[in-house]
């Protein structure tokens, strides 16, 4: 029978310790893989979640088609500020001076139809699967549903996000792009979120549906870069139409213009063709066709709808993974999406 000498027994103990140490480390690592989300996340706990959300989104789409652009934009604004964690849905506490994200200036014109859609979907999901599905996942599913309902692809949505505990208006301005952002600024902002130049161009294609208020392009049509002239890269017929709807002073603040003058409610690749014909609405849109880094990508999506659809689904998946929270330490599963637990 082999006998362990003092030195070999301490080696044995040390080896056991190492095995134990690395196995717990591995287990912690496995537990810690916090950023993992998956398409089948609710397969056992709430297998009907997509049907439940789908019943609401299709109803909303029939009753108020603007719910589509509203919810897609809501998802984008959620993901870019604090990650895709439904922090955009939190309401400011009554009487509090600390405004929540949704009350930041940049979020003031998010339409109520997007918020309403998520509230309705959450109420239905809670009635069937109480305490299981996060608001952040419902928002990701609803955004995809509306892309599909408007004519885009029905891509699979990964799930498993938890809702965030932080929602602060002060975090908004530096994390969202603006109508007059330069391509350089857009590239930098998207890159800070782990998104490439191609992702920037493809995600901007969401502007194939929806509308913008006059204030977002007023300078562009009357006083571009302080020249007191319109941006020369606008088609003159579009310029005339925009000027008629949006006077330089005294106009109605509620007036909006469609991003895609050709098919404003259809999710297609017309956005890119429009940019090539000087029909972009915002300076940030048209800029993508003027900059040599983004122009070839605009051209290729303008030529190939299937390519745009594939790239858009992949980029939404990527955007939907920004800053996600997992577990009780960083997140919560809200019962009501507008209120922390
Ligand atoms: C690339 C930089 C972007 C800029 C500068 C930008 C800016 C804007 C602005 C100023 C509006 C008009 C808001 C209003 O007047 O009511 C708007 C609307 C919209 N944005 Fe963007 N956006 C960008 C990227 C995105 C992305 C990545 C998505 C989604 C993936 C998106 C989806 C939308 C949609 C769907 C609307 C229409 C909303 C509606 O009609 O209710 N945008 N965007």
UniProtKB/TrEMBL annotation:
Matching PROSITE patterns: PEROXIDASE_1, PEROXIDASE_2, PEROXIDASE_4
Main location: secreted
Residue ranges constituting the Plant heme peroxidase family profile domain according to the UniProt record: 36-341
GO biological process: hydrogen peroxide catabolic process; response to oxidative stress
Assigned GO CC terms: extracellular region
Keyword Heme on entry: yes
Record: residues binding heme b: 207
EC number: 1.11.1.7
Record-listed Ca(2+) 2 binding positions: 208, 260, 263, 268
Site (Transition state stabilizer): residue numbering on this chain: 73
Entry-linked SUPFAM superfamilies: Heme-dependent peroxidases (SSF48113)
Reaction equations catalysed: 2 a phenolic donor + H2O2 = 2 a phenolic radical donor + 2 H2O
Gene Ontology MF terms in the entry: heme binding; lactoperoxidase activity; metal ion binding
Signal peptide: 1-30
Enzyme class: oxidoreductase
Binding residues for Ca(2+) 1: 78, 81, 83, 85, 87, 101
Cysteines paired by S-S bonds: 46-129, 79-84, 135-337, 214-246
Co-factor note (free text): Binds 1 heme b (iron(II)-protoporphyrin IX) group per subunit.
Keywords for this protein: Calcium, Disulfide bond, Heme, Hydrogen peroxide, Iron, Metal-binding, Oxidoreductase, Peroxidase, Secreted, Signal
Similarity comment text for this entry: Belongs to the peroxidase family. Ascorbate peroxidase subfamily.
Functional note: Removal of H(2)O(2), oxidation of toxic reductants, biosynthesis and degradation of lignin, suberization, auxin catabolism, response to environmental stresses such as wounding, pathogen attack and oxidative stress. These functions might be dependent on each isozyme/isoform in each plant tissue.
Name of this protein: Peroxidase
Organism from which the protein derives: Hibiscus trionum (Flower of an hour)
Organismal lineage: Eukaryota, Viridiplantae, Streptophyta, Embryophyta, Tracheophyta
């Amino acid at each position: 029978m082999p006998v362990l000498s003092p030195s070999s027994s301490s080696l044995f103990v040390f080896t056991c310790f190492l095995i134990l140490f690395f196995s717990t480390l591995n287990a912690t690592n496995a537990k810690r893989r916090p950023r993992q989300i998956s398409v089948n996340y609710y397969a056992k706990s709430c297998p009907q979640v997509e049907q439940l959300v789908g019943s609401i989104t299709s109803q909303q789409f029939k009753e108020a088609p603007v719910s589509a652009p509203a919810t897609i934009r809501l998802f984008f604004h959620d993901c870019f500020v604090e990650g895709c964690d439904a922090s955009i849905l939190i309401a400011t506490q009554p009487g509090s001076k600390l405004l929540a994200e949704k009350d930041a200036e940049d979020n003031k014109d998010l339409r109520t139809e997007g918020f309403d859609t998520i509230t309705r979907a959450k109420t239905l999901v809670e009635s069937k699967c109480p305490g299981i599905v996060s608001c952040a996942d419902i928002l990701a599913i609803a955004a995809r549903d509306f892309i599909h309902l408007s004519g885009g692809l029905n891509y699979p949505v990964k799930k498993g996000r938890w809702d965030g505990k932080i929602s602060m208006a002060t975090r908004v301005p530096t994390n969202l792009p603006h109508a007059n952002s330069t391509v350089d600024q857009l590239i930098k902002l998207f890159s800070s979120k782990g998104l490439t130049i191609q992702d920037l161009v493809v995600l901007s294609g969401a502007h194939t549906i929806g509308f913008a208020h006059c204030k977002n392009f007023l300078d562009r049509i009357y006083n571009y870069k302080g020249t007191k002239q319109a941006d020369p890269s606008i088609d003159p017929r579009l310029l005339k139409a925009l000027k008629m709807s949006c006077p330089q002073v005294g106009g109605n603040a509620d007036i909006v213009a469609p991003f895609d003058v050709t098919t404003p409610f259809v999710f297609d690749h017309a956005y890119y063709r429009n940019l090539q014909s000087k029909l972009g609405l915002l300076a940030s849109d048209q800029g993508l066709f003027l900059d040599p880094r983004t122009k070839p990508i605009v051209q290729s999506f303008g030529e190939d709808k299937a390519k745009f659809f594939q790239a858009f689904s992949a980029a939404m998946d990527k955007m939907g993974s920004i800053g996600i929270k997992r577990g009780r330490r960083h997140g919560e599963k809200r019962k009501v999406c507008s209120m922390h637990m």
